[in-house]
Amino acid sequence: MAEKDTIFSSSVKNTGIFSFSDFYKFCYDWLTEETELEIEESKYKEKLTGTSKFIDIEWNGTREVTDYFKFDIKVEFKIENMTEVELVKDGVKMKTNKGAVQVKVKGTLVRDYKGKFETTPFNKFLRSTYERWVIPSRIEDYEEKLFGDCDEFLSQVKAFLDLEGKR
Fold first, then answer.
1. Is residue 167 over pLDDT 80?
2. pLDDT tens digits for 92-111?
């Protein structure tokens, strides 16, 4: 069985004006282009309450870094009380959204994800020796890379929402 270590777990919250479609596209594009993740949307749930909309979205992103290491990143979006609003920008009316957004990110480093070292007890012993004495710095490098990717994504999300709210 593959060894999984949670390296990063954090979230950001923002309440204000934003374009949901632009936000969705920005997040998807950033994750696929900057981190080279393959994104799968495992959940998309909308609930209407009067004029407000509540949206739950879950993405699972994976990237095989080597034949031994893999990044798993889970992103959860919760949008509450999203309503459509009209703004006037430079004398032009435009429709956008207003609501509360929460984005949670969990980054996991998966070692031996193909299970090559799981065939016998001796192979399990070899894996622990390999990880402890041969590649500890490589493990640390991948942990730092995964942490950096997750942290940068949350920073970009926060910056995007802050910018959108100031338009």
1. no
2. 888 899 999 999 999 999 99
3-state helix, strand, coil in the chain (%, to 5): 35, 50, 15
Token pair in block for residue 39 = 């994104």
Angle at 143 between CA 141 and CA 144, to 5 degrees: 65
Strands (E), 1-145: 3-18, 38-49, 52-64, 69-89, 92-111
Distance CA 134, CA 127 (A): 10
The count of C-alpha atoms lying within 13 angstroms of the C-alpha of 148, restricted to the half-sphere facing its C-beta, is 8
Other Cβ atoms less than 10 A from the Cβ of 81: the count is 14
Question: Do 39 and 32 form a contact (C-beta atoms < 8 A)?
Answer: yes
